[in-house]
Structures are given as structure tokens and as C-alpha cells.
Amino acid sequence: MTETKAFVVEQASAESHKDLLLLDDDNAFRQRLALTLERRGFRVRAAASLMEARSLLADFRPGYAVLDMRLEDGNGLEFVAELRQLVPDVRAIILTGYGNLATAVASIKTGAIDYLAKPADPEAIVRALLEDGESIPEVPDEPMSADRVRWEHIQRIYEQCGRNVSETARQLKMHRRTLQRILGKRSPR
């Protein structure tokens, strides 16, 4: 292959890596984030549901993905594995308003490169997408509160039980409705 052809192929490959799939069911957040990411040089295709994202993937292979964890028609965590089958080297991050240690670990195990709590700063999202993975996060100034430790434990058991509320309640020796109320709330600080 000549040098010119090699350069064109390399440039096309680098350009296609700027393609980004944004999957979030919050319209206002999705539009603001898409605009911010486009200003940073990404070519964004946005979807509000898993069904819409799957249809985009018919002719689109993104180098990056920003996925909301809880969607009306499914779960962004499960979609990471699906996306990695189509694009093995995709750099995907999970965004969630229901952050906890168990889902953070699950997102990394499914192939996401990072996990950010909403409302996430757009600059933090761009940094997470472009980081090389060599940097180590800083140690927090304050330890977790007792409420947060309890929340993390409940979420870990919930994930281990396959997100089955009844089984989780049995494991925790807790009333199912009490557990449902706890799971419906945002995580404590």
C-alpha cells in the first residue's frame, strides 16, 4: 500500500472513532450533552430508548458511547455487552442517578470503561471518554456515611439476586415493600 493510501485509511479510521452513541431517556439532558459533545469534536447520534439505539446500530459503529443505566425500555448495563459484541473496542461509560458500588462494579464487568453519577459534568464525561486509564482516582476526603454503607450493601445483594426484589428482601430479612421504597430513592451521600 502506498503512503498516501495508508494515510487516508489511518485518517478515516481516526475519524470514525469520533462517532459517539448517546443513549438517555431524559430529553433535555440528552440534547444539552449532545451539543456539548459535538462542540468537543464528537459526531453524536442520540437515542431515547434501547429500541432506538439498536436501530441506529444497523448502520453505525461508534468508537464511544455514553449510556444511561435506567431506561424506560431496559437497562444500559445490559446494552453495554450487546454494544461490545458489535464494536469490541468501543469506549462506553455508564451514567446514572442511582449510583452505587454494586452497579459500578457490574458496569465495569460488562465492559464499560467508567461509571459516573448524574448530574455529571460534561467535562467529566469527556475526560472519562478520552482518558487512557492510567490515572488513579483521588482518595475521598470523607468516608461514606452509615446510610451510604447500608445503601451499598442493599444494592450489592439486589444485584446478586438478579434484581429480584422478593429474593433480595428474603436475603436481607426485610419486608418487600420496605425494600421497594429504599430502592426507589436516590442514594444517600
UniProtKB/TrEMBL annotation:
One of its GO terms (biological process) is phosphorelay signal transduction system. PROSITE patterns: RESPONSE_REGULATORY. Residues 19-133 form the Response regulatory domain. Keywords: Phosphoprotein. Gene3D superfamilies: 3.40.50.2300, Homeodomain-like. The modification 4-aspartylphosphate is found at residue 68. InterPro entries: ActR_PrrA_rreg (IPR047772), Bact_response_regulator (IPR050595), CheY-like_superfamily (IPR011006), Sig_transdc_resp-reg_receiver (IPR001789). NCBIfam families: ActR_PrrA_rreg (NF033791). This is ActR/PrrA/RegA family redox response regulator transcription factor. It comes from Hankyongella ginsenosidimutans.
